[in-house]
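Pipeline run #58 for the internal structure catalog. This entry was flagged by the ingest filter as a single-chain record with no existing model, so it goes straight to prediction. Upstream metadata was stripped on purpose; only the residue string is passed forward. Reviewer on rotation: M.T. Logging verbosity set to normal.
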Amino acid sequence: MARRGIKKKEYERLDDVTIGRVVSLLEGEKPITKKEACETLNISYNTARLNKIIQEYKDKMAYRKKRYESNKGKPFSDLDIKELVTDYLNGDSIASIAAGLYRSTHTIKRKIEELHLPERTKDSSYQNPDIIPDEAVAQEFALGELVWSARYNAVAEIMGRYENGIDQLIYRLWVYGKHNQSAYQPWWELGKLDIIKKFNLEAKLFSRTEQPNFMYRID
């Protein structure tokens, strides 16, 4: 990610973790040289640019710390919840969501549970999808409703249904996220996302791909 005021070249290592490590090494008991610091960051030897990178990193960390402290124990605003829900359902990590909202990962996890958002485990896969939480289990979904697809780990839109007895109720979907494709799934692999209705979140918020969209609707 490019830093404020600094043009980053593709090969340069200007992520927070690497810069933080360089700062620690420069300020340690046996500090490294600025030349070594530049080599670690994979940038050309330029002390003025190095100093600017370090200062902007420190400013960012100080601002982040201040925001974390001000948010400690503070209720989530509707805007915070919208951002959390959108990012989580789009597959963003707990750590990145916490950083974006200036909250601890523990607080974000607790809020996710409180909102009854679908579980995303590391073991989940297309062949082994996560179990839909009890609060989200349903057999009936409306045309156009946004639901959670456990098999694809993504938000999907109900496009049609096919019934051959209640145990054979299959839904045609448009799967968002990185997929951007049509799919078919049984009802037990889909979950209600009432939180989306509550905050009027639009389907386009859950499309994160450059794949062409060939979706069409048959009324």
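catalog note: The first strand starts at residue 146 and ends at 149.
catalog note: The beta strands are 146-149, 154-162, 170-175, 181-186, 190-192.
status: ready for reviewer M.T.
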